[in-house]
Amino acid sequence: MNKHEDIIRKIQERLSTLSKSERKVAEAILADPKTTIHSSIAKLAARAQVSEPTVNRFCRSLIGSGFPDFKVSLAQSLATGTPYVNLNVEPDDAPGAVTTKIFEAAKNNLTRAQEILPEHLISRAVDVLAQARRIEFYGLGASGPVAQDAHHKFFRLNMPVVAYIDILVQRMAAAGTHPGDAVVVISYTGRTLPLIETARVAREAGASVIGITNPGSPLTEHCSIVLPIEETEDTDIYTPMSSRIVYLTLIDALATGVLLKRGPEFNAHLKKLKQSVQDTRLPKIEK
Amino acid sequence: MNKHEDIIRKIQERLSTLSKSERKVAEAILADPKTTIHSSIAKLAARAQVSEPTVNRFCRSLIGSGFPDFKVSLAQSLATGTPYVNLNVEPDDAPGAVTTKIFEAAKNNLTRAQEILPEHLISRAVDVLAQARRIEFYGLGASGPVAQDAHHKFFRLNMPVVAYIDILVQRMAAAGTHPGDAVVVISYTGRTLPLIETARVAREAGASVIGITNPGSPLTEHCSIVLPIEETEDTDIYTPMSSRIVYLTLIDALATGVLLKRGPEFNAHLKKLKQSVQDTRLPKIEK
DNA sequence: GGCATTATATAAGTATTTTTCAAAGATGGC
DNA sequence: GCCATCTTTGAAAAATACTTATATAATGCC
């Protein structure tokens, strides 16, 4: 799904398997990738305190060809931007810097999610949702607005959809589902007890349970389909909560997938919807 | 705010000013940029049917240094990618393609918004919010969940915040605001009549009205501060509504800015919050 | 048409990268 | 613990790629 590999991450991954000198090379690159893409092999070798052939071998082992091609790969990887800058917001950042960091972090999270999400699971989820007699979205806390947003999207598709953000209501609704219903459980950690219970109940009642959650979490055990979104390490309280962005985008993709499955007769329905809100609006100003 | 120039566009722009041979070079590059970044100067010269020094001169005139550095720039420009692929979802797209397009569209929207948003306005908005006696978020339709998400974020910061998604309630609340209160009005089009009215009322009552909306729309006339987010052309009904993503990210940035202004004593508060939800969760599984 | 200017290429020179190869170091078996 | 073997590393040489200098051709201007 990814356009091209992320060399920086690849280096980080292989760091442990490298020999002493090659690790020096890796560290020198990671310490300052921006400089690296404009350096000659000699400069990098000097910076890493190793010989030039070592750098060359490092490149070959990593991407299969020499240093110039490696620089090109690194440049690309840098441009799409893995966190080569520190994206953690620091207490003394100016508001402009904060904004930049948060936007960049959001984009990175989207890219990462894209790499991890398996296409076939999305396909299956779309199939289930498109055929569901009824769709229910459950979310708690920060996932509450996500569930409501999902409701809004599917509602626009004229589908029988509800969103619940109350544990008790969720529990009752889950118990009342039937085979042919789809329940989408949204949880960042996948470890929120009441929601796990609710998923189990829905599953037992026969509903298809789609979990949008942390892969490997307990919640996944009660899901028919798991759409994995990794829990980013929450090392810093300033860390922006941009995971919600990823959820919303994924749900956008699901909704669009369902729309496409539903076919062209729904376009008419959408047009009608748009028309219906027109008269609450002032006309567009001609520039 | 943009990171680096787009070489490809630059080449296209200069195409007319170039000499015959250099134009051959430019055309050879544009014809197949992917191959170019893995070619030597000799190969490119052969492909363009010119001599090597011509290629070199071309590079110098364009970026001020030689061919290797040019390749690096080209690689970056290729990676961030002017939209080479069509991001409009087509009716016969596979679900995987749909997902990719929607994620890419979301990232593009974030980038665009970042370029347009003026730093100083964000700073001012942060100042207003940090000092507000009370913060109210208003949104309708798709902006409803955005307002609720905003509420959730500021609530975590222990700020006196509410979110209303009902026109009447918004209107009443707006009338009841005072100087020192902040009202954040979220509207995609900026042309939704009731919301414009509400903004006017709040302004008259003395509140600071922050509009997160389409610049140049009627709503902006009743705002103290406008955070512009452009209305993307809605040419296609399949177009994902990823503008919400931009709203949420912007609000993330505002909330983080406020958090930083509030200083370190709030970290303790946040820790307490996190602790308070711990006991509703299963423990993290050790891998 | 001849001169000046610019554009391009050939060839020479320089820098960079890659390969080769041998030495040093690490690893494992006995 | 020592030797054989394999791996890692760097020095030097070879190959490649890039740049500069210079010459020639093309173009435009008077």
From TrEMBL, chains A, B:
Signal peptide: none annotated. Keywords: DNA-binding, Transcription, Transcription regulation. One of its GO terms (biological process) is carbohydrate derivative metabolic process. SUPFAM superfamilies: Homeodomain-like, SIS domain. Residues 5-81 form the HTH rpiR-type domain. InterPro entries: Homeodomain-like_sf, HTH_RpiR, RpiR-like, RpiR-like_SIS, SIS_dom, SIS_dom_sf, WH-like_DNA-bd_sf. This is Transcriptional regulator. The lineage of its organism: Bacteria, Pseudomonadati, Pseudomonadota, Gammaproteobacteria, Oceanospirillales. PANTHER family: GLUCOKINASE, HTH-TYPE TRANSCRIPTIONAL REGULATOR HEXR-RELATED. CDD domains: SIS_RpiR (cd05013). Residues 125-264 form the SIS domain. One of its GO terms (molecular function) is DNA binding. It comes from Marinomonas ushuaiensis DSM 15871.
